[in-house]
């Protein structure tokens, strides 16, 4: 999914699966990626669990930050630099990773390309909802479908 999002904005990407909680294997995988890449995007291993391999390995390195941002989905995030590569650490949940890519990775990609985000990505427009939704104290990105008739967004069940 992240590779498809990257391709949609014209990036050449390589997928390097590391599906393990072994710190040595993760370190070897991300170190190899940093040799060839300008941007590395990881998914998973950054939440508040007792052991998250990405946060554990990269959190020990100078210049890496892991934060809980006030948005839903996509609360756990990480970022830093590994050699010449910028590293973005996104949550593992697919919807959270997608929203995080749209919010955090797209501006980084645009800057790396020497452009403004508005030049590279479709404009977003505010549209009215067809019904009220329960709001939380964090920025929420909700699923919905655009009603082609009256131009409303119909919220989808989570």
Question: Care to describe what's here?
Answer:
The protein has 158 residues and is of the alpha/beta class. Helix content is 32%, strand content 22%. It has helices at 2-8, 23-36, 53-58, 94-112, 117-120, and strands at residues 39-43, 65-68, 71-72, 76-82, 85-90, 139-140, 144-147, 152-155. The chain has a 4-stranded mixed β-sheet with strand order 1-5-4-2, with helices on both faces. Strands 3-6 form a two-stranded parallel ribbon. It has a two-stranded antiparallel sheet with strand order 7-8. The protein is globular.
Q: What structural class do the secondary elements suggest?
A: alpha/beta
Sequence of secondary-structure elements: HHEHEEEEHHEEE
Overall strand count: 8
How many alpha or pi helices? Answer: 5
- Strands side by side in the biggest sheet: 1-5-4-2
How far apart are the first and last residues' alpha carbons, in Å?
Answer: 19 Å
Quick one: overall form? globular
Average pLDDT number: 89
Radius of gyration: 17 Å
Kindly estimate the percentage of residues that lie in beta strands according to DSSP: 15-25%
Binned, the helix content reads 25-40%
Question: Largest sheet, described in full?
Answer: 4 strands, mixed
pLDDT below 50 for ≥5 consecutive residues: which ranges? none
